[in-house]
Amino acid sequence: MIEAFQSEFMRNALLAGLLAGVACGIIGTLVVVNRIVFIAGGIAHAAYGGIGLAIFLGIPPLAGAVGFALTVSMIMSAVTLKNKQRADTVVGVLWAVGMALGIIMIDLSPGYNVDLMSYLFGSILAVPRTDILIMALVDLGVLIIVGILYNSFLAMSFDEEFAMAMGVRVEMLYYILLGMIALSVIMLIRIVGLVLVIALLSIPPFIAEKFCRSLKAMMAASVLLNFLFAIAGLWFSYKYNLTSGATIIMIAAAFFFASVACEKALAHFGGGA
Amino acid sequence: MPLSAIEIDNVSFFYNGHPILVNVNLRVEEKDFLAIMGPNGSGKTTLLKIILGILNPARGSIRVFGKTPLEAAGLLGYVPQDTWLNKGFPISVQDVALMGRLGMTGRGRRYTSSDRDLARKVLEQVGMWDYRDRPIGKLSGGQRQRVLIARALTVEPKILLLDEPTASVDAQFQTDLYGLLKELNDTITIVIVSHDVSVLSDYINSVACLNQTLYHHESGELTEEMLNAAYQCPVDLIAHGRVPHRVLRRHDHEDP
User: Which residues neighbour A109 within 8 Å (Cβ) at sequence distance 6 or greater?
Assistant: First the structure.
């Protein structure tokens, strides 16, 4: 196992995977309990527009992605605030428009862009030092914000109306949450690419929800599961020479199916929980 | 003249252009025990949400002890309908009860040890302290309802609003609940939305029938006109409680 991580780029990849795991475990938990996985997906795919725009304008692609994703997340907040189900269509439209914009911007950009694939499917093996630093900062920001606002997020996620009646600023929290989703999603694009972002955001919390008794525990468990998937995924991809991002997702999926099977087996043989 | 607990003036509310509430006027005095009745979809839940500040009326005003609903966050305890609740959510009975202290905890929203003591006291009062670490999803309907009541009581409210609290529970629970509410009514104003005509018997002192507009009767008696207007069909009522107990105002009818 250890020899896989001897080289610098593998160590960087591991670090990137672990750092992304922190933010995504915490944010992914909030996404899943608030049932806004589709909205998170919309932000992720729309972010591609920002990547295209950045390449067209000649600025660092990930910086463009961050700015664009934050803008899109604020628009999605405003649109989905009152009614998350009705706004499905709008989310779907923003999702598609973002991607289409990105592709066209890249068409219009001079030169040949190999970067396309790496944004769609991840390039965890080519994460530069500066990106690692930014990920660490985002993790710190997420930990601080969720740490301070934990009880409010918990109240909003469990019973939004009661929280409102208690004077919790639910609207503001929602905007903050979608903003944090935008940042986490950009981090994930590096690891597994934008096509697979939703899987990594939602699978660990889905598994954790089955055995966790508090939201805090669910967040911690999701972070640890992310660590596990990153380490195992990277190791397998090294050993069998596979695309890292996809391998990580397959490991996550395996655990997903295993947890569903376990639950069904327990219910069947244990006579119900 | 002392401030009314709740003052609703000419409130109207629309949903997608459809009128839900039209020119509703209501005054609830402190320590009233008001039942709001009416058919499904008549706006009873909407009215509660407007009192709580969850919804804003299109027209009219609402005051709770002279304050706006959001200013009055610490005065109102809310027990919503059970169906609304996210039963799969990872949260314990104790943590649900603590949420009533949210209005009191200030910016950082950390619970203090006195918050926890209060939550304990209230959970003991509703008989759910032994279940404090149980996940909310692993309770029966009646147990869950008790926890929601506890949550409303940790607010230390002056007004308790309950939305069909006995919709999916057994008769014993119903009796226990109304007994508890009667006790609480010594110090707390109670507004209960209910489908249940039998609620009327021994507990309330005021009735309102809502079907877009409100028909209010102070002394706890329903007139047949009120009920007919509210339900839009003649209603057969069975009197409950200690006999003789008048539920309907007498008309030129025979007794049922």
Answer: A52, A55, A56
How close are the terminal C-alpha atoms of chain B, in Å? 42
Q: Is A217 in contact with B99 (Cβ distance < 8 A)?
A: no
Q: Kindly state whether A155 is in contact with chain B, defined as any CB-CB distance less than 8 angstroms.
A: yes
Contact A164 B135 (CB under 8 A): no
The structure tokens 């014993």 sit at B172
Q: H or E stretch including A19?
A: helix A8-33
Say yes or no: B57 contacts chain A, CB-CB below 8 A. no
User: In this structure, what DSSP letter does residue B211 have?
Assistant: E
Residue B110 and residue A151: Cβ atoms within 8 Å? yes
Q: Which of B67, B44, B83 lies closest to B161 in space, CA to CA?
A: B44
Between chains, do B102 and A168 touch, taking CB under 8 Å as contact?
Answer: yes
pLDDT, tens only, B181-222: 989 999 999 999 887 666 555 677 777 777 777 767 665 565
Residue A27, Cα to own-chain centre: how many angstroms? Answer: 7
Which of A188, A180, A214 lies closest to A21 in space, CA to CA?
A188
- Is A56 inside a domain boundary? yes
Whether residue A272 is contained in a domain is answered as no
Going by their DSSP bridges, the two strands B6-15 and B59-64 should be labelled as antiparallel
Residue the block writes with tokens 């709740």: B6
Distance from CA of A175 to the nearest CA of B (A): 17
Which position has the token pair 């929601």?
Answer: B148
Q: Is residue A74 part of a domain?
A: yes
Q: What is the dihedral of CA A77, A39, A162, B179, to 10 degrees?
A: 160
- Here the CATH number for the domain that contains residue A258 is 1.10.3470.10
Find chain B residues with C-beta within 8 A of A209's C-beta: 88, 90
Using the Cβ of B256 and the Cβ atoms of chain A, whether some distance falls under 8 Å is answered with: no
Q: Note the pLDDT tens digit of each residue in B63-94.
A: 999 999 988 888 999 999 877 677 789 999 99
| Cis geometry, peptide bond prior to residue A128 (ω within 30 degrees of 0) | no
Kindly tell me the burial class for residue B255, based on how many C-beta atoms sit within 10 Å of its own C-beta (0-12, 13-18, 19 or more).
exposed
Are the Cβ atoms of A165 and B73 closer than 8 angstroms? Answer: yes
> Which chain A residues are within 8 Å of B92, Cβ to Cβ?
213-214
**pTM tops 0.80, yes or no:** yes
Q: How far is A147 from chain B (nearest CA, A)?
A: 9
Distance CA A75, CA A42 (A): 11
Interior angle at CA A91, CA A85 and CA A94, nearest 5: 165
Report how many domains make up chain A. Answer: 1
A270 lies in some domain: no
CB contact B106 to A (< 8 Å)? no
Residues of B in contact with A159 (CB under 8 A): 80, 84-86, 99
Domain coverage including residue A37 = 2-265
